[in-house]
Give the backbone structure.
Amino acid sequence: MTIRVIIGQLNELDDETALFARQLGIDGVQFNTPRLPADQGFWQLDDLVALRRRCADAGLHLEALENVPMSFYDKVLTGAPGRERQLENFQRTVRNVAAAGIPILGYHFMPTFVWRTSVEPGRGGALVTAFDESRVADGNLVDYPQVDPSLRIGAEQMWDNYRTFCEAVMPVAEECGIRLALHPDDPPVEAIGGVARLFNSPANFRRAYELAGRSEAWAIDLCLGTTSEMAGGAAAVEDMIDYFVPRGRVAYVHFRDVQGTVPAFCECFLGEGNYDPPAVMRRLVAAGFDGFLLDDHVPRVVNDTEWGHRARAHAIGYIQALLAVHGG
């Protein structure tokens, strides 16, 4: 396939957003934790097929799903009693996603999820989220289910939890012919409270690749913003591209950026962050990337919608221009 730009970060598709996508020349969509019945602990095939057909009826191709509800695998993440049942249900979800004709399922392995400590004024007063590790004790501004950060889960236990996940789920994904795309930890710090975070450096992603046995189903969601937050900033972005793209392990790319690196950073508009967007696009193309690109977190601009149509139009147009000029 060729590199393409899609819309994402939706949990459902309304007519207005479908029209917005088509007006921007986009024909693909990804959902983040889609609003599907979840009471049985896994996604049902009929619901997934209905979601894909809803997209098709709106003139959009369903490219991928990203993130299952935390309740589907919180015990898997933490190694708590009951994880075997959750692993069986995750296998059911993988089989059903594949049977519905959806080729990619993105996921994270962050028991304490995405963490932000403040909202700050960015360019022109646009609001952006920020993280400062010294303020973690003040709490998380991101309202999403997460485990209690006062739990004590060390790094080696988390690695064992991830190994158990891979051993149970990757063979099923291989059998079904879909890819599971791992998102970096955001923020990429060593721990939040007492809970270790693993996917905070290129070296740890390489360790995960080996731990998964280089499974054909194992891939990454290369979130450029989260990678840019890592120690090294732009150098970490280059490292991830140079290692994983030639190996065909980048399923898709979140094209966003931040200013600063851990322990403190803030989000920003494309073009004013740690890396040079044209150089990154050229690097992706030269390395052989052939997946899709999408915007991710965006600043909140004046008179925008809750989803951020205005800010996303800016980000999507920026990415489309980069691809037109540097896409080969």
